[in-house]
Amino acid sequence: MESPIANIQQDGPRVTVEITEREVDTDELRSLVHELKQTLEGEARVFVFRLETVEFLPSACLALLLMFYQEVKKHDGRIILLNCQENVAFLLRLARLDKIFELAEGEADQA
């Protein structure tokens, strides 16, 4: 699986998505989410989005992540947002999305 905005690795049920762009483009994220949804038909159930490089996340991108979350939940999966920069974490808390997504710090294999 390839994406212009992310490095993606799957290890069994865990898919690690390392976002490599400082500002996430909505259309590129839409394409990425479309690809990730296809992995739900296999064994993927845990999606770890590494966000340490992301400085700005448009509200449309948050909406895409929420739609993806709904699909993941249908398969008893979960989404972890790892190593968010403070401004992104603040936005997530402000929108109360920290109640939906798991926010974590550390390495992807420990989340």
Word description of this protein:
This protein has 111 residues and is of the alpha/beta class. The chain has one domain (6-110): Transcription Regulator spoIIAA, CATH 3.30.750. The chain is 35% helix and 23% strand. The chain has three helices and five strands. The chain has helices at 26-39, 59-74, 86-94; strands at 6-11, 14-19, 46-50, 78-82, 102-104. Strands 1-2-3-4-5 form a five-stranded mixed sheet. Helix 3 (86-94) links the parallel strand 4 and strand 5 (102-104). Helix 1 packs parallel to helix 2. The two termini are 22 Å apart. The model has no long low-confidence stretch (mean pLDDT 95).
Tally of helical runs: 3
What is the helix content? Answer: 25-40%
Largest β-sheet summary: 5 strands, mixed
CATH homologous superfamily name? STAS domain
Distance between the termini: 22 Å
Nearest-integer average pLDDT: 95
Low-confidence stretches: none
Q: Any idea what the shape is?
A: globular
Return the domain count: 1
* Rg from Cα: 13 Å
What string, H for helix and E for strand, traces the elements in order? EEHEHEHE
Broad CATH class: Alpha Beta
Quickly give the structural class. Answer: alpha/beta
Q: Taking strands numbered 1, 2, ... along the chain, how are they ordered across the largest sheet?
A: 1-2-3-4-5
Organism: Algisphaera agarilytica
Domain STAS: 23-111
GO molecular function: anti-sigma factor antagonist activity
Protein name: Anti-anti-sigma factor
